[in-house]
Amino acid sequence: MKIDIVGVGCPKCRQMTAEVTAAVAQLGLEAEIGRIDDPFTIAQMGIFTLPQLMINGQLARFRYRGRASIQKLLEEQL
C-alpha cells in the first residue's frame, strides 16, 4: 500500500503524518508512507483543503478526525 500525505508541512499535516504512521503500525500493514508537499503540484491536483491523504494514487474522501478516522479508512482499504 502506498500512502501519501498531501500538505505543505503545517502542524496539522505533521500531526496527520504521525497518526498515519501509528495507524499503519497498529494495523500491522506494509505501507510506504510519502509526502506531496509542493504547493504547485497540490494545486494542479485540485486540492485546496489540507491535509489530505492519497492511498494507492487515489485521493481519499474522508473526514479527518484524528487517528481513529485514519485507521477506519485504512481498514476499509484492506
Task: Please give a structural write-up.
The longest helix is centred in the N-terminal third of the chain and has 17 residues, at 11-27. The chain has 3 helices and 4 strands. With 78 residues, it is of the alpha+beta class. The chain is 44% helix and 21% strand. The radius of gyration is 12 Å and the shape is globular. The model has no long low-confidence stretch (mean pLDDT 94).
Gist?
The chain is of the alpha+beta class and about 80 residues long. It is about 45% helix and about 20% strand.
Helix fraction, binned, reads 40-55%
Radius of gyration: 12 Å
Q: In one word, what is the shape?
A: globular
* Structural class by sheet pairing and helices: alpha+beta
CATH topology: Glutaredoxin
Mean pLDDT: 94
Instruction: Report the β-strand fraction as a percent range.
Output: 15-25%
The N- to C-terminal Cα distance equals 9 Å
CATH architecture: 3-Layer(aba) Sandwich
